[in-house]
Amino acid sequence: MPGRTLVACLGNIFLNDDGFGVEVARRLAGEDLPDGTRVTDYGIRGMHLAYDLAEGWDATILVDAVQRHGEPGTVYVIEPERQQPADGGGTSLSLTESMLFDPHGMQPDVMLGMTGMLGAEAGRVLVVGCEPASVAEGIGLSEPVAAAVDEAARVVLDLVRGGRAGLARPGGSSASSGGSATKE
User: Fold this and answer.
1) CB 3.0-4.6 Å disulfide test: which of 46, 66, 119, 144 passes with 72?
2) Phi-psi bin for 68: left (phi > 0), alpha (psi -120 to 50), beta?
3) Tell me: the pLDDT tens digits for 25-65?
4) pLDDT confidence of 80, banded at 50, 70, 90?
């Protein structure tokens, strides 16, 4: 990842595996990160994320639970495609309805769209996500998702340190977690 990178960890700790991004933020808290990299646990504070995105970034990595109908605990790296909005002005990110589930009311695609309205740029956007087993009310990650936290933290660290070039192609690719791989 070039220059200034925002790692935005998202999720609701009261909805089991939706707390995935929050746990990844905790894991990254003690890591030595490149200059210009900020890791923030946004939880469900979408407006806070929108205003931080307005600062302008070379790259943004969203870390969240991602429902793509794979095996629970599968870690994905996805690069959403930029698409022209229906009104024909500017560009926006297309995050498909099934890609990011949203039980906490924070819509990353809306937050990214607001960035342009605020006159800033999110830069290259990647999503590091994990397939949830459950987003029912409750505190704590399921076993496969808890096991994927370290892998997701390694993926984020690799991305911000400039590794894994080409891993995230438009439309998404996946890394495996817990021995299971997802074919795309």
Assistant:
1) 144
2) alpha
3) 999 998 999 999 999 999 988 778 888 888 889 999 999 99
4) confident
Amino acid identity, position 21? G
* C-alpha atoms less than 13 angstroms from C-alpha of 84 in its C-beta half-sphere: 4
What tokens were used for 169?
């192609």
Three-state secondary-structure class, residue 183: coil
Structure tokens at 19: 């707390």
Residue matched to tokens 């943004």: 60
Q: Are 126 and 61 in contact (CB under 8 A)?
A: yes
User: pTM here?
Assistant: 0.75
CA distances from 70 to 118, 131, 132, 146, 181 (A): 36, 6, 9, 16, 9
Helix extents (H) in 29-136? 46-53, 108-117
Q: Which residue has tokens 């990214």?
A: 112
Radius of gyration of the chain (CA): 15
Name every residue whose Cβ is closer than 8 Å to that of residue 90 and which is 6 or more positions away in sequence.
Answer: 84, 116
* Cα dihedral 12, 75, 146, 159 sign: negative
**How far is C-alpha 141 from the chain's CA centre?**
17
